[in-house]
Specification:
Blueprint (H helix, E strand, L loop, with lengths): L7 E8 L5 H7 L3 H12 L4 E9 L2 E8 L5 H12 L3 H6 L2 E4 H12 L11 H15 L5 H20 L9 H13 L6 E5 L3 H12 L4 E6 L2 H9 L4 E4 L3 H4 L5 E4 L10 H9 L6 E5 L16 E4 L1 H8 L3 H27 L1
Helix pairs in contact: 5-7, 5-14, 6-7, 7-14, 8-9, 8-13
Length: 343
């Protein structure tokens, strides 16, 4: 049921629940395209408020409208943007309105809708998306209330339930995988591609678990060096990858590059020089930093976000009661908020 002035809250999105990693990769938006889409939506007569959440596992458009049926129009716009047929896009997306949209925002902020249930990066990503939309005056009464309350709800869930027990994060899970494969990390050569937030947290997790030989490779040498200096590591630019891969035991992708940085053609001749030394490739990025077909190269073992999620959710059964309790609380909070917005 819409608000008393006839406005409806909606979210149109695609995530790990509706799309494979290959489809999510096709739907991923870079910062420039996300901004253009937000600007276009906000200047439509039928959309009064909007916010775009764009992460490695989801693209979601939140908005407020007085249109009776906005979904087909939005799907058409996204179809043109991605070059994907509307029918295919519809098959891999979801549409929620009003109280259901509020509940979804709360669950996303709390990490309950994440592929790695309980992960903590999503809250920061949602806060950043809200800050951008608010700064550009794309949000108003409804979205301001929804997202401010979603942040409060996420804090409550993390404080009062065991949903996030174990500090679930991409960096920690990537490090857990490295430990499982290598046993210990002190003498393991790690090449980390990317010096952003995920790269920084992954580095911190690696160092805390004993890694000492880490090279941070990035587009910007100064940023890579600033991260490497935090743990007396080394830094390099991404064009040095062929040389770095000759001695790497583990390579981790954590950049925002639009195309793979490591391809089969790049890696195949390098692996011939390494005799029997295996290479563990862990890709935390979407779009992916490491081409899928490198796992056909001898002695290369590739893991992507789906593999990391399987590890993260191994103990989910033990947390199911906590997840159910958190979802019930969110359902009640969403209902109260939506009733307040309708007044």
């Amino acid at each position: 049921m819409p608000t008393n002035n006839g406005k409806a809250l909606f979210v149109l999105g695609s995530s790990h629940r509706t799309a494979s990693i290959e489809v999510r990769e096709r739907l991923a938006l870079d910062a420039a395209r996300a901004e253009l889409l937000a600007e276009h939506l906000r200047h439509q007569d039928t959309v009064e408020e909007c916010l775009i959440l764009n992460t490695c596992n989801r693209v979601e458009i939140y908005g407020v409208t007085d249109a009776a049926n906005l979904k087909p129009e939005l799907l058409q716009q996204l179809s043109s943007l991605h070059g994907m047929p509307v029918s295919e896009l519809d098959n891999h997306s979801f549409w929620l309105t009003d109280e259901d949209a509020v509940r979804h925002a709360f669950e996303v902020a709390s990490g309950l809708d994440s592929q790695m249930v309980g992960e903590n990066e999503i809250l920061g990503q949602l806060k950043a998306a809200y800050a951008r939309a608010s700064d550009q005056q794309y949000t108003g009464r409804v979205l301001n209330r929804v997202f401010q309350k979603s942040f409060q709800t996420a804090k409550w869930v993390r404080t009062n339930t065991g949903v996030s027990k174990g500090q679930v994060s991409i960096g920690n899970i990537a490090t857990e995988l490295a430990l499982r494969v290598c046993g210990e990390l002190a003498d393991v050569n790690v090449v980390l591609m990317g010096s952003g937030e995920v790269g920084e947290k992954t580095t911190q997790a690696l160092v805390s678990r004993g890694a000492r030989r880490i090279v941070v490779a990035g587009r910007n040498l100064e940023r890579a060096r600033a991260l490497a200096d935090q743990f007396t590591g080394a830094a390099a630019t991404l064009d040095k990858l062929p040389e770095l891969l000759k001695t790497a035991d583990i390579v981790i992708g954590a950049t925002s590059a639009p195309e793979p940085l490591i391809t089969r053609d790049l890696l195949k001749p390098i692996m011939k020089l390494r005799a029997v030394q295996p290479l563990i490739a862990i890709d935390t990025a979407l779009p992916r930093d490491i081409a899928q077909d490198i796992d056909k190269v001898n002695n290369v073992y590739l893991y992507n976000l789906d593999h990391l999620a399987q590890i993260a959710n191994e103990n989910l059964r033990a947390r199911e009661a906590e997840v159910a309790s958190a979802k019930q609380s969110i359902l009640e909070r969403a209902k109260r908020l939506w009733e307040g917005l309708r007044d």
